[in-house]
Amino acid sequence: MNSTDNSPGKGTPDGLAADPRFKVVERTLKQYQYRADALLEVLHVAQETFGCLSDELMTHVARQLRVPPSRVYGVATFYHFFTLEARGEHSCVVCTGTACYVKRSAEIVTRLENEFDVKAGKTTADGKLTLSTVRCLGSCGLAPIVVLDGETVGRCTPDSAAAAVRVMLAEKSPARAETVRPVRRRKGEGQ
Ligand code: FES
């Protein structure tokens, strides 16, 4: 493939061309006929397929949709759903929005950071766990909230959150007492 061809539908970077997951992104670009207003949808598929949005991937999407790379980067960093770094095998997200913060979610973050030797926003050295924080998941009545591999666990304590993460790391589908569906929010909303 030619990485210098800027025509829509062409110019696949060499590093991506060999990756079978790239076909999924290409299909999505085609499906939306390389329209600039499909940026969110395309990034969504790219994120789900690759697990993160690399510079190479974002540059390619920008070229294909004919939008400035800065716009793609801006969207990718604006929404919590997107991440620019590879995630671990398991994900733990602690809500630090106002309701959860008041119910001491910061203590949960500290406890998880210490117990699993990972800073919020990072992945453990063994690639098993990504710990991150988010501002309000829309389930404030169950604060403080932790989301484990996409499942929301309400009314956590530092102890119960750490125990749930241990279970998650040991098993594929841990049983959790009180769960609600997470609501995707944009950064800055519901704080
Ligand atoms: S502040 Fe945590 S769910 Fe709303």
UniProtKB/TrEMBL annotation:
Keywords: 2Fe-2S, Iron, Iron-sulfur, Metal-binding. GO terms for molecular function: 2 iron, 2 sulfur cluster binding; metal ion binding; oxidoreductase activity. CDD domains: TRX_Fd_NuoE. Pfam families: 2Fe-2S_thioredx. InterPro entries: NADP_DH_HndA-like, NuoE-like, NuoE_dom, NuoE_N, Thioredoxin-like_sf. Transmembrane segments: none annotated. PANTHER family: NADH-QUINONE OXIDOREDUCTASE, E SUBUNIT, POTENTIAL NAD-REDUCING HYDROGENASE SUBUNIT. Belongs to the complex I 24 kDa subunit family. NCBIfam families: PRK07571.1 (NF005747). This is Bidirectional NAD-reducing hydrogenase, diaphorase subunit. It comes from Geobacter sulfurreducens (strain ATCC 51573 / DSM 12127 / PCA).
